[in-house]
Amino acid sequence: MAKNSSDDNDEGTPAVSDEEWARFLEQAQAGAGGAPQEPSARARMVTARLRDESAQPPGWRTGPAWQEMQGRGRGKRRLKAAAAVVFIAALALIAVRPELVIDRVTGKAERDHKAREPLAAETARPSAPPAAVDPDRPTLKEPFKGSPALQWADGAAGIEVPEAQAAGGMSKEQVADALEKAKQFLVSANLDPATLRGERPAAALDLLDPKLKDELDRVEGTLTAPSKENDPLHLFTRVKPAELKPVGEVVKVRGRMWVEPGKEAGQANVLADYTFVYPFVKAKPGAEEVERTIVRREITFSVADPRKWQATAGKLWLEKYNVDLANSACDVYDGFLHPTFADDARSGPAPSGTPVDPYDRSRTLDSGGPEGCGSLSRT
User: Any idea which UniProt keywords this protein has (predicted)?
Assistant: First the structure.
């Protein structure tokens, strides 16, 4: 008996095999058994699915779930987007400040970092001037940029008092007091804001021995009637607030102080050699150009034993002093500093001679400087 084609299932495969059908006919003739049951539609679907899956290539089911793959894809896209934003921001920063990349490529960034490392205190006269640094222009935010003073101490911290020892018949305690008074004088004369803006340096003057009346009168006269021969700048740093104002509150300082026996028994000398670097800007709205004036002072203070000399205990004598003013008008003697700015009209004598490095502390001021209006190698 032929089997009708309609007995095929939806997949085109006979629902009952020929062997099963023959066995059914034999059982029917024998009067036993029942017709084989055709699998249900659900059973056929499961069988078909398992058959299809068994035919898939190896490893088909080893990958992540679809949801995981989609989530990871979104995560990668977010990372790429963030990286793109960072890259664009970096390009914008380089466009605005290309020196960030140039400095790193040329090694300037590393040199700048080293140029900011603080120097150890000066304990002896240097054998050579400071090494050259990148000649960057000072700014309002970085007024010591491009200067060796970038590594120098700030203000009074740069005036270090050495350990006291007895000298010239003066006790260790007397010498220690003289050292401390010498520092106080230097701070008042060169760092006190009141002194800098042209006020009377009262604290410094009070440290001088009142018994030296002639000397005190002469110093006072330099403040009230300055001249080329009697210039208060020989001892005090002063500017006109109407013309200049300091950039920031820091003055860079480097130098040393030491003690020697005096000329006579019962006297000791405190010798000080310090360089002060002042950044200024013009006192007018919107002024941005920064210029530095460098002032170096060599001062010898003396202290004497009141039991042997006409001296006041705890007071200083001014034995000798020299000054070197770098970047201040050569022909103006009004008792104030006058640094030169780029937009200033040329007046007075033009600088001449071999350029001098104002940061060079290897030479003494006694060795002499350029005659007239000397030129500078840097400020």
Answer: Membrane, Transmembrane, Transmembrane helix
DSSP 332: -
352-356/317-326 β-pairing: unpaired
Residue 69 and residue 77: Cα distance in Å, rounded? 12
| Structural domain includes residue 366 | yes
| Confidence band of 80 (pLDDT split at 50, 70, 90) | confident
Domain region containing 284: 116-376
- Judge whether 156 lies within some domain: yes
Q: What is the pLDDT of residues 318-334, one digit of tens each?
A: 999 999 999 999 889 99
Length of the chain: 379
pTM of the full structure: 0.71
Report if residue 153 sits inside a domain: yes
Q: How far apart are CA 317 and CA 215, in angstroms?
A: 9
DSSP 8: B
Q: Is residue 75 part of a domain?
A: no
Beta strands in 242-364 (DSSP E): 244-246, 252-261, 267-282, 291-304, 317-326, 352-356
